[in-house]
Amino acid sequence: MTKETKETTSNDIEFSTFYVGGAICGIDILNIQEINKHFEITQVPQSSEYVKGILNLRGRIVTIIDLGKKLGLSPVAPSKDNRNIIVNSEDEHIGLLVDAISDVVITQKEKIESAPSNIGGVKGKFFQGVLKTKNQLIGILDIDEVLKE
Amino acid sequence: MFEDDETLQMYIEESLDHLADIESDLLTIEEGGANIDLDLVNNVFRAAHSVKGGAGFMGLTTIKNLAHHLENVLGMIRNRELIPDSEKISILLKGFDELESLLKNIQTSNGVDISAHVQALENITSATTPEPVQKAGQEVQVAAPAEVLADISLRDGRKFQQVPLKEIETCKAEGKNLFLVEYDLINDIQQQSKKPMDVLNNLSKTGTVIETRIDSGSAGTLGDAGMPGKLPFQVLFASIIEHDMAETLFGVANRCIHVITDDMISSAADSTGETPPPLPQPVEIVSAAPQPAPVATPAVAVAKQQNKPTIQEAPVDKPQEKDLAIGGKPQNSLRVNVGLLDTLMNLAGELVLSRNQLLQGVNSSNIKATELSSQRIDMITSELQEAIMRTRMQPIANILNKFTRVVRDLSHQLGKSIDLEIEGKDVELDKTILESINDPLTHLIRNSVDHGIETPMEREQMGKDGTGKIVLKAFHDAGQVNLVISDDGRGLYPDKIASSAIEKGLISESRVAEMSDKQKTELIFLPGFSTAKEVTDVSGRGVGMDVVVTNIEALGGIIELDSTPGQGTDIQIKLPLTLAIIPSQITSVGNERYAVPQVNLNELLRIPASQIKEKIEKVGDADVVRLRGELLPLLDLADMLGIQRTYVDPETGEKHEDRRTRIADRRSKVHMPGEVSVSENETENKTKREKSDRRYRASSAINIAVVSAGAFKYGLVVDQLHDSEEIVVKPVGRHLKKCTAYAGATIMGDGKVALILDISNLAQMAELSAVAEASQNAAKAAEEEEAARADKVALLTFKNNEKEHFAAPLSIVERIERIKTSDIEQIGGRKVVQYRGGSLPLYELSQVVNVQQLQDRDQQEVIVFKVKDRELGLMVTPPVDAQEVVLNIDSSTLKQPAISGSMIINNHTTLLVDVFELVKTLNPEWFEAEAKAAATMAEDGGKIILFAEDSAFFRNQVKQFMVEDGFKVIEAEDGLIAWELLKERVDEIDLVVTDLEMPNMDGFEFTKRIKNDPAYSHLSVIALTSLASEAHIEKGRSVGIDEYEIKLDREKLMAVIRQYMNL
After folding, report:
1. Gyration radius (Cα) of chain B, Å
2. C-alpha closest to that of B742 among B839, B640, B880
3. Chain A interface disruption, residue of B736, B761, B764, most A CBs within 10 A
């Protein structure tokens, strides 16, 4: 491990990154409750198209949202890499279904640039900003905005 | 200020407890008037007194002052010096209200201005006190009670000052002895683990506590009196007990008991601004300051010594938490019966035992032991659940009782006289439901008082008792709690409500025309509706009945309204016992399970594939199932929710997707113009399938959950019906809030989630709900307007030949059968078939009507009619379909024997068969008796029937029936014309037959006029209707309709006419 990880200062932010609809996005790790692969999902007819269904998470009913559809990208294709990212939003647990999980990225607040009006076909309002790494551009999601009905 | 929370809290709770029953007691006292029930008065008196006693001890000046004044008035009532009229009781009630609110806001109580109450109370006392001390109009000073005070000088020279002389005199008059008892808070009370309140309570059992004071100032100075380190707690006490007994009673040394004799009492100066006395300083003066008062110290000391933690028991349903702004933070606590707590404890113990057994069984792989213990755990869990639920159950009296007061105050305000009767106070409801039902109930009660009950004058004019009556009843029924609020007031006028709703643009006129009175009455539940002519501050504050409905429905409850104009209104509310766990029927559609709350479930219905055709019909666009003579609309859950349906393969148990996308495909009755008959199609398919796939039959049975939401009932079609389970309701996330079809979700035994269906919202989504339907936009209404004006009639349509369409009234059809052509026998030139042990004569239309003969087929559809108690079959060509159509009959163009006319149904010219005439032509001998009777009657001059009917077709038809049977008929085109005719020719008319739906004056109004006028009321009224609904019939009976008959059921109609003519 490098020196960098040990000295995470208050200025550092950790992002959990993941793939959805061909794009790579990140969420502040502090927003994330857990990441799991429960797919015993009960469909909810008549719900919004992006709602995948509901899930029993240790006695709690959690709404699972297909993040791909929600962001206007292609829907999450079933695969063994699929994961639910359970986030905490407005006192409620909500699951975001993503194509696959990637690394945790540690960076500094200054390195986050403001989001352009459109990232890979996704509206800019869904992003808090973008993070440029050596070889990719990570869109940092604004969870509350994404989960607005 | 009061640092000892525990003691203070206890005082508050105890005092609130004391006050809890006061209201009803006072109201009873008021009722009794001069007839004073001493026990009751004493009750209230004691309550006021205990509050006062404690307040003095705690340094709560304002509370003490108020309680004291209340006590004074009550004392006078007790001594019969005052007659408790309603004015005085009002003042007392307000005083106690204030006292309660002071107690709830204890921290700020001392700063509250209670002068108005004190003044009002004083006015009562001074008005009756012989020596007027102070007159009203003078400046009032809060801390200056205008009463006669006395000082008591003890033998040792100390003084006990400013005691109310009045009370002392009262006690003396009752022959009581006066004692001044000096307890020592430290030695006598605290070290014996007692509480000052206990001491006071004990004392009040044997006498009257007049004053209590803590002599904090004397703690030091009393040293010379030989009582060092003491904190005197002085109680001025009156009792019939003699001095020698006193020592045992008080439990203190004799020297601490001072017998007060008359000479020790000296009247203090009337003036209130007296200089403070030198010795024991009355507590209230010290603590009047908003800062922590020194007096708090002893209280703390006392409580600290009380090492036993008492269970905090706060009255549950007092919404005190919100009133307490600062400081005193009473926990949201619940009073639980100790017996119940013991039960819980036992159950917990058993649970632990069973767990141990289960673990042992699992460890030793002993299957039998495991099974046994799991059974035990199952049982204990249920019991535990039930017991825990019981702890949440609270008697409904907690909220019902306060309505006595609400009704009393409101009726005074409105100048009405109303008795409120409350029944079923013991009924228990879940705490949360109880809390949420309060507001809707208050609203309904207010409505009853404000709009329901009339003023005494109005009531007397109507011949009612001047005093109105509201009954509030709670009872258990079928696992639900029922609340009924009924009043004998003016009731609701459906037409007024309807016109008001139209005015407000909530509904179109044409829709209202179709509604029954009950439906019209229920329009008051529409948002934006309020019949109050003016907004009063009682009801009609913009919160309408729709809010009440919403609230009650949010609780899973149902509200129903029943009103008789001029007689009163009944409102019935049905509530579930609890919200958290609900018994439900588990069903499934597609791959998912759905829970139907048992509350909504009436019954389960399974229609085998073989019976689908007979049982399920189509009315308009909707599927209906005939269930015990009732037509039940069907709602396919899969269609509603857009789910792919499945069926279970009976051989492999696997689920397959059902390729039929619409429920209608499983049935045969849909007939679309220009399409090949679906029925034949299916017959074909079926035979094909029967050869290749026998599973089809089993899987195509239809499973229906018959559910009801409010007054509305429908059948929910699901793929499968599973078990009934108790489910725990869990809320769903915010993204699903707009899916109104679900009431929540639950977790099933296998860990998967199932959705709970919201039965009433589903009905609304399908636009089934009566009221929802009513609130639909006017556009649809306009479209249907024409339809509504004409008569609708249920017809059975069928064909004779491929291109010859016929119809007959459904009401006279007995059954529809399919027989094999080979079974038809030809005997004596007639066709018959053996059927149910007899022979059924078969006819075809071509025998009478000028149409083609039937084509030969393997099977033959037969419509069975019953005429003259004899059954006969008419052979027809399918499809045979039931339809509700608007009769728009051309009775001339295609008229011929046995055909009453023609009309267009589904783009085909359809001939309407007159079955009666058909039979008459075929079997004239059946009718010989009637013909003879008719002839005789015609010779005798005949009986005359007044017949009102707006549809020319029906008028002619029915008239013909009557004329053929020898009656004379006077026709009228609507109720109004009939009424005029009746007035002119009443002497000739023997009987009235009327249609119900007519312009200008409908049959109901017409009947009502006849029955309410002594000149005509002897006439019997037979109503003719095309579709008789329960509500219709009920309404008809109430206005005096003697009999209901279906139009075009000639035989029955004529039989009834004869019966009423005594022929």
Report:
1. 41
2. B640
3. B736
Residue in chain A lying closest to B642 (CA): A45
CA-nearest residue of chain B to A39?
B752
Contact A142, A87 (CB under 8 A): no
Q: Output the six-digit token pair for B959.
A: 């008239």
What does the pLDDT look like over B156-173, one tens digit per residue? 666 666 677 767 776 666
Alpha-helix residue ranges (DSSP H) falling in A16-148:
67-70, 143-146
Q: What is the per-residue burial (b if ≥16 Cβ within 10 Å, else e) of B698-716? A: ebbebbbbbbbbbbbbbbb
Shortest Cα–Cα distance, A15 to chain B (Å): 25
The answer to whether B151 and B266 have CB atoms below 8 angstroms apart is yes
C-alpha B9/C-alpha B195 separation (Å) is 13
What chain A holds in terms of domains, given with CATH numbers, is 3-146 (2.40.50.180)
Chain A contact set for B747 (CB, 8 A) = 56, 59, 61
**What end-to-end distance do the CA atoms of chain A give, in Å?**
42
Looking only at the bridges linking them, the beta strands covering B830-835 and B825-827 are antiparallel
CATH of region B5-305, choose from 1.20.120.160, 3.30.479.20, 3.30.70.890, 3.30.43.10: 1.20.120.160
Q: What topology does CATH give the domain B790-922?
A: OB fold (Dihydrolipoamide Acetyltransferase, E2P) (2.40.50)
Q: Please, which residues have CB within 8 angstroms of residue A140's CB and are 6 or more apart in sequence?
A: A15, A25, A26, A27, A28, A112, A115, A127, A128, A129, A130, A131
Reduced to 3 states (helix: H, G, I; strand: E, B; else coil), residue B899 is: strand
Q: Which of B592, B734, B755 sits opposite A92 (nearest CB)?
A: B734
Structure tokens belonging to residue B369: 């032991």
Please tell me the distance from the alpha carbon of residue B922 to that of residue B936, in angstroms, as a whole number: 24
Interface contact B739-A147, CB threshold 8 A: no
Q: B396-576, which class in CATH?
A: alpha beta
Distance CA B680, CA B24 (A): 74
For residue B830, the tally of other CB atoms under 10 A from its CB is 13
Average of per-residue pLDDT across B462-489: 83
Show residues of chain B in contact with A57, CB under 8 Å. none
What would the two tokens of residue B125 be? 């006392």
Sequence-distant (6+) residues with CB within 8 A of B462 are B454, B566
Closest Cα in chain B, distance from residue A74 (Å): 20
* Strand duo B813-820 + B805-809: pairing: unpaired
Residues 6+ apart with CB under 8 A from B727: B581, B582, B583, B584, B595, B746, B748, B754, B756
pTM recorded for the entire structure = 0.42
Per the listing, tokens 């010594």 go with B305
Across the A:B interface, residue pairs with CB atoms under 8 Å apart total 71
CATH superfamily placement of domain B925-1060 = Response regulator (3.40.50.2300)
B233 CA to centre of own chain: 54
Tokens 């002839």 identify what position? Answer: B935
Compare all CA atoms of chain A with the CA of B745 and give the residue at the minimum distance.
A61
Are residues A54 and B745, on separate chains, in Cβ contact within 8 Å? yes
- pLDDT per residue over B497-550, tens digit each? 888 888 877 777 777 777 777 778 877 777 767 655 444 444 444 456 777 887
> pLDDT tens for residues B876-911?
887 778 777 776 777 777 777 778 788 888 778 888
Residue of B449 and B786 predicted with greater confidence: B449
| Residue of chain A with shortest Cα separation from B746 | A61
Which helix (H) or strand (E) segment is B581 a member of? strand B581-589
B661 burial type by CB count under 10 A (0-12 exposed, 13-18 middle, 19+ buried): exposed
Residue keyed to tokens 């440029």? A132
